[in-house]
Predict the structure.
Amino acid sequence: MTETTTSSGGRPSLPMQGVPQPSRDEGLNLPRVHISSHPVMAHKMTALRDKNTQPPEFYRHVKEIGALLAYEATAMLALETVPIETPMGPMIGERLAGGIGVTPILRAGLGLAEGFREVIPDAQIWHLGLRRDEQTLEAMEYYNQLPHRVDLQVCYAVDPMLATGGSAIDAINVLKRRAIPRLCYVGIIAAPYGLLKLSQPHPDIDIYIAALDESLNDVGYILPGLGDAGDRQFGTF
Ligand code: PRP
Ligand code: URA
């Protein structure tokens, strides 16, 4: 998404160097952005960001944060009535109306998807592999296990880090071709830059995050962020 330019000496410059970035307040003003304000979330985020948190614990925190985000992001789901019998007699219960899809953007989205499955065990998991080229910051698709038959009421694209927004935009583009009635993006940390970029082509999706950070550094990493979410989950430093 971000073009690599060349400096006067002919050497490639850093992809986000000199790129103007919106303020945090601009991100906060977006209408469909939901930022968690739950104290348990804030507590877990501190442990997640800490550089001393090791991969097994880091993965566990991503999963737990995924479950909390799932709880918040599913608050608007549609219900339908269903007659049941309790041991005491008949009643009209409620159940989710239609299937739920979760699309983890590989690989860092895997931990978040696990958290979603804790909350919605029968969610369909649609794997989508996108890798960000670290020179150009453009996302490239390398894996797609999206089914062709769709019977979902909603699908959540999940990925911990919304940095330049390139991966999230591509993921939503792919999902939009599946004619799902409602799409949401769920992330852990967003940069204002990525949040505005994602909202421009996709103003119709709700975005759920645990934290909105300050900015991107020259190579497109979120500040203060947590480093590389994939490497920290899977120990590939
Ligand atoms: C990271 C992260 C996002 C993407 C965010 O993934 O998990 O998918 O970068 O950056 P963007 O908003 O600038 O697109 P990466 O491509 O490094 O792959 P990984 O999950 O395999 O580590
Ligand atoms: N991907 C990450 O894992 N971390 C960032 O800060 C940006 C992209």
